[in-house]
Amino acid sequence: MLDAVLPVAVLITLLASSIILFGAGAMDGPLQVALLLSAAFAALMALKNGFAMSSVADAAIGGVTTAMGPIFMLLAIGALIGTWNMAGTIPSVVDVGIGLMSPAWFYLTTAVVCAAVGLVTGSSWTTAGTLGVAFVAMSKVMGLPVEVTAGAVICGAYFGDKMTPLSETTILVPKLVGRGLTVSQHIRNVFWTSGPALAISLVIFFVMGLNAQPEGQIDTEAAQQALGGVFHLSVLNLLPMLLLLVFTVKQIPPFLALMGSALFAGVLAVFTQHSAVTAFVGEPGLGPVATGAKAVFSAMASGFVCRSGQPVIDELFTRGGMVSMLTTVWLILGALSFAAVMEYAGFLRRLIEPVVTRAKRRGSLILAVNGTGIGLNVVAGDVYVADVLPSRMFRDEFARRGLAPQTLARAVEDAGTVTAVLVPWNTSGAYTAGVLGVATGAYLPYCFFNILSPLLDVLYGFIGFKTPTAEQVGAPAEDAG
């Protein structure tokens, strides 16, 4: 137990020291160093317990390879943000939004729209990286705090992600829990916590909107004129967004869908945003074909740089590029290296086992699942670890106590899936902070849905509300397969 606890203590100490010393700048390198040093210390503890150096190294590499899918998605999202800005896609959404929405309804509308998009796409990451970016830019134009807007984006995106059969985690968790649990059964049961959590969040966002005090005097027409002076705003600019939606409905793999939309937006920009593309490349002597090709490659690689001469517009839409995601990738690699060594050496299981055995009652057992999921998001830094381990560790105990598989699956999702975005070094938290340009600590207090979901799940467990038994749902109480 001491060998299992020590790496966690080192991790917490180094992470806390990084944040205290560097503040918001800790995300730019110090946190990554802390994670890799913690991974090295965990490896030393594994060697002390008799594991071979080669096997520990292979475990760390294996853990990192599990993040290849998310890493490719990160790079694709970076490319997409760059070309969508260059093509005027995000500026057009901002233009429409500031013309239609008032500050009083802005947060509420943001959460509702992101929930709807999350339901259609099945991905909180895609929602945050596309419309989420536009809403954050919109809030800057309207003089509203971006951290609240980011919270509204995350609340809506994660509700949609949990409530659709297109989501990876929504499909994964019922399979891990087993005992005949279907995805549709899982979604119906999760709604009893997710529905009220979102409803309460929407009420809070509505009240916050009514009391919002935009910084400075907002001149909507002036803002729209400024946008129109830089970009050619038309419905054509929304074609990359429509293409991404079509790809999603057709169930094209996420990386291919994002890269396809990004490339299409880059090519579209060459024809629809000639002046912005020419100013971006900054080489008047180049021919139109060379200028277009260079613009597309540059926007996808290092991001679009808006050179309008208007500081507010330039700051808003100089974004994106695969390069902008490399710090986040570095963070993910460090977190997963630590998690992989901890899991391979059996340290995570050693930490969780006492929690399982000491949870004697239904409420305390559900609390243990939620606490384990949140703890793994902090220690392991990856949502899949936080979903997989509790599902495996607790399913036998739930079966022995006659609790339905729906109860465990909901607890895993409410804690493991939903709270991952609240941890700066978690893959979800690092990604979301990176694409939205808002620090995790800044948006965390406004992620009401993500905070309420595990709280409601634990409350239901203690009072016995909507926590079905195996007998009630007809699931085999003793079969944990």
UniProtKB/TrEMBL annotation:
The alphabetical list of record keywords is: Antiport, Cell membrane, Membrane, Transmembrane, Transmembrane helix, Transport
Q: Where in the cell is it found?
A: Cell membrane
The record gives the membrane topology as: Multi-pass membrane protein
**Presence of keyword Cell membrane:** yes
- The UniProt entry's coiled-coil ranges are none
What InterPro entries has UniProt attached to this entry? Na/H_Antiport_NhaC-like_C (IPR018461), NhaC_Na-H+_Antiporter (IPR052180)
In this protein, which residues make up the domain named Na+/H+ antiporter NhaC-like C-terminal?
A: 156-465
Segments traversing the membrane: 5-24, 30-47, 59-84, 104-137, 189-210, 230-249, 256-276, 322-345, 365-386
Tell me where it mainly resides.
membrane
Keyword Cell membrane assigned:
yes
Q: Which family does it belong to?
A: Belongs to the NhaC Na(+)/H(+) (TC 2.A.35) antiporter family.
Listed PANTHER family: MALATE-2H(+)/NA(+)-LACTATE ANTIPORTER (PTHR33451), MALATE-2H(+)_NA(+)-LACTATE ANTIPORTER (PTHR33451:SF3)
- Report what the protein is called: Sodium:proton antiporter
In its UniProt entry, the species of origin is given as Actinoplanes lobatus
Traced from the root, the source organism's taxonomic lineage reads: Bacteria, Bacillati, Actinomycetota, Actinomycetes, Micromonosporales
